[in-house]
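FIELD: query
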Amino acid sequence: MAGEMIIAKITGRGEFPVDMLRYESCSPASEADSYLILDTVRNFGRWEIYVKRVTRTTKAERKKNSMADWTVGRWESFGVKIERFDCSVPPSGRRVEKDFVVAAV
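FIELD: result
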């Protein structure tokens, strides 16, 4: 049985813990979130970024613990907060500056 797509909101300050994307097998929820992650490397202010992934748990498990699909303690070890987002599409209308250049080295 295929899992369903779930979204979580990550909030923090400073650089986004990019390795957590690999660890959780998740990805930015939108193109805007991808740009925001890149921006945290040079801008150490507060941020709110949405990530998505396919569930690994059953609906019954998620009903008991809405964060069963995420390693909350590991996110918190990076000084960020993760919480469930109850919408299939993250909030739109966030402004993303594209004034940086990504160069291959």
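FIELD: remark
Strands lie at 5-13, 27-28, 46-54, 81-85.
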